[in-house]
Amino acid sequence: MKRADIHAPGEQTVRSPVNSDPPQARQVTKEDWLEGPNITWSLQHTSQFFPTRQVTRATAVAELPVDLKDLDNLPFEDSLKDLIFFGEFIRRTDTDAIIVLHKGKIIYERYENGMTPETRHLLFSASKSFLGLVTAVMVSQGMIGENDSISHCVPELAASAYSDATLRQVLDMRVGVKFSEAEEDYTDLESDIVNYLRAADWVSRLNYQGPTDLHAALLSLKELEGPHGGNFCYKSPCSDVLAWVLSKASGKSLSELLSELIWSKIGSEREAYYLVDPLGKEAAFGGLNVTLRDFARFGEMMRQMGNWHGCQVVPENVVKDIMNGGDCEVFANGNRADTRPGWSYRSHWWITHNRNGAYAAFGVHGQWLYIDPKAQFVVAKFGSQLEPSDASIDALHLKAFEALATAL
After folding, report:
1. Which residues have C-beta within 8 Å of that of residue 389, sequence separation ≥ 6?
2. pTM score of the predicted model
3. Torsion sign (Cα): 90, 93, 97, 98
4. Residue ranges of the alpha helices (H) in 325-386?
């Protein structure tokens, strides 16, 4: 018997509206949902071919005031010093939807490829920043301790390589667990991260003999390649370890915790939803689906130091800790330093340490939430880039956001 809050693929509870589906979308499978041209349709309709769990919102919607500006003609130079305009940047980066808030007002909003304000879109690893924030809030409430060992929080993980890592080390991805997730691994069918996706049942399991759910996948990680607390190394299983810790500490699912602590407090327009594995556990590493405006609301709450319409949703000290960032030296020795020089990683957020103190959540295939405290703007952006990761496209995004900071 399936649990009442798990929705089978295609159930109407949290399905995004279908908008003139292309013919190939009707035959999307786990073998080709991330391939072109299917990916553009797939990322807007994941509930039609994956089971989901809903993240409930409150009744009242917090309206976003509108003061539209002509940003399409905003000029800036790309990495090659060629002149480009903001509108062209949107076309070149396979954008499905983008919104810019300045001082809490919508100054730019655009939808492409069948997207609408009501459409939910998969966030991939931008989901991690929601999880990181929920974890940090629970630490601030004393429900869990950041220096607690993982085996203390989740005794089932005592036999895994995560056993004596601390919660803080997992939050900042400074664990020595042997797991390969370099950017080129996303297209290597034999890589650790692709096999992890197989455990989540996200991609084909043809000839696969490994774990068939996320908890089993975590328990299978038993080797260390270095000490815990060493250099930063991006590893998606860390996120699902955190979700297991939160569930153990609270007796609630990640969906329930996100709803109670954040989603029901920011005036969301739509329920969000997580993709879940075959046992009904949320894919904390990348399975959250939200609408564009709600993504922006989340970012605006962070820009306002955790405050939303007079309500302190997230403690200010939690937001400050994220903004201050992690250790730049250990990041510089990690597996993302080449494309993000001078950055750091803190509580599942990416910190740029640029002149405006900007920080971000982002996921493969073009998902971005960029928060600039000094220039007082937030960019929420959905994409369907064919390549999971593209350093040149990431650099173009940062150039565009720098141009916004200068203009605003």
Report:
1. 183, 186, 364
2. 0.95
3. negative
4. 328-332
